Amino acid sequence: MSEENIVYIGNKPVMNYVLAVVTQMNGGVPSVMLKARGRAISRAVDVAEIVRNRFITDAEVGAIDISTEEVSNMEGSNSNVSAIEIQLSK
Amino acid sequence: MSEENIVYIGNKPVMNYVLAVVTQMNGGVPSVMLKARGRAISRAVDVAEIVRNRFITDAEVGAIDISTEEVSNMEGSNSNVSAIEIQLSK
Fold first, then answer.
1. Interface residue B71 vs chain A (CB under 8 A)
2. What is the DSSP letter of B12?
């Protein structure tokens, strides 16, 4: 991903991630990939919607992919968690 | 949506919705649309992933759309909430 930056969505407030995306796109990055897992998936959708509705109105949501990732917890066992990737381009 | 059934994802356990989707698809419905808003968005992704990984392995995730919906709360004011639609077909 040369021209494309990735923003990982975690548990911080939504506007932190919105600001990260807006800063990148206004700085000349044409396409940003939002990635999130588990409960942060809802927040990733919020970020995409807020960016394109309020800040960069010519941004478009491109491909949205969902998948399952295996994560190890602290007890050493594995569990599955859902993940999402949302592409935002302008 | 004649051939297509909609399953609204809310706050019940994930497996309730998985069962609803699996029942429909095994009953001959070729395409099911999952719809969710707000925090239930993560659960909708879980449902789609569990259905296609564990129960109906020839099911495919089709179009995924995200949007913003305006909802009225009990005080009478409006707020925006993100929404997702995930199409599952076999």
1. no
2. S
What average pLDDT does this structure show over A6-25?
96
Cα angle value B22/B17/B43 (rounded, 5°): 125
Disruptive mutation site among A37, A39, A41 for chain B (greatest number of B CBs within 10 Å):
A41
- Kindly report the nearest CA distance between residue A59 and chain B, in angstroms: 13
* Extents of the domains making up chain B: 3-89
Rounded distance between C-alpha atoms, residue B89 and residue B87, angstroms: 7
- pTM for the structure as a whole: 0.91
DSSP A2-40: -SEEEEEE-SS-HHHHHHHHHHHHHTT--EEEEEEETTH
Q: What is the CA radius of gyration of chain A?
A: 14
* Nearest Cα residue in chain B from A85: B64
What would the pLDDT profile of A36-65 be if each residue is shown by its tens digit?
999 999 999 999 999 999 999 999 999 999
**C-beta separation of B88 from B59 below 8 A:** yes
The chain B residue lying nearest A67, using CA atoms, is B49
Please tell me if residue B79 touches chain A, with a CB cutoff of 8 Å: no
ipTM: 0.89
pLDDT at B1: 45
**To which CATH superfamily is domain B3-89 assigned?**
Alba-like domain (3.30.110.20)
